[in-house]
Amino acid sequence: MDSIQTTEFEGVTQYTGTAKALHWLMALLIIGLFALGQYMSDLSMSPRKLLLYSWHKWAGVTAFFLLLVRIGWRVTHQPPALPEQMSKQQRLASHIGHALLYLLMLAIPISGWLMSSAKGYQTVWFGMLPIPDMLGKDKQLGDALAELHGALNSLLMFIVVVHVLAALKHHFIDRDHVLRRMLPSSKDSSLAQ
Predict the structure, then answer these.
(1) How far is CA 191 from CA 18, 25, 178, 188, in A?
(2) Fewer Cβ in 10 A, N or C end of the chain?
(3) Does residue 125 belong to any structural domain of this protein?
(4) What is the domain count for the chain?
(5) What is the domain extent for residue 43?
C-alpha cells in the first residue's frame, strides 16, 4: 500500500508505517531519556556523569529532530479518524492529550538546551556538531531552568502514563481499534479479531 495514505487492514484504519516507526522510536527515546535523566542526576560529579550527560544531550537533540520530522509527517498525512462511538468528551480529551504530548516533546529539549547554555555547558551533538548556546552563562537562571526541565519531564511521564492507560482502555474495555492501528505490525493475527 502507498505509505502516503492511511492504509487498511481487514477494515481497521492504520497509521502509515512511517508514523508508526516515528511513534515507537520516539516512545523508546523518551523512556530512555527519562530513565537516564533520573539516574544521572543522582550521581556525584565525575567523568562518568559528564559522559552520561553528553549521551543524554545527544539523545535529546536526536529526539528533537525526530519530533520535527514527526510534526511534518503529521501535518502532511491525515491520521486515522477516531471511532464514531467515542463521545465528544473523549474526543476532546484525546486531542488535548496529543497536543500536550507534542508541546512537551518540543518544550523539554528546548528547556534542556537553554539549561545547558545557562550553565555554561555547550552541547556538541555526537561529539562532532557544536550546537550554539542560546543563553550566556548564568548560574541562577541555569538552576531555574533545571527545575523547569525536571518538572516538564515529570508532567510528560504523567501524560505518557495516561496515554498508555487510555490506549489499553480502548483495547480491553471499549474493544475498538484505537490501539491496534498504531501497533508496529499490521500483520499481527490479533488484528483479525
Answers:
(1) 19, 22, 11, 6
(2) C
(3) yes
(4) 1
(5) 11-183
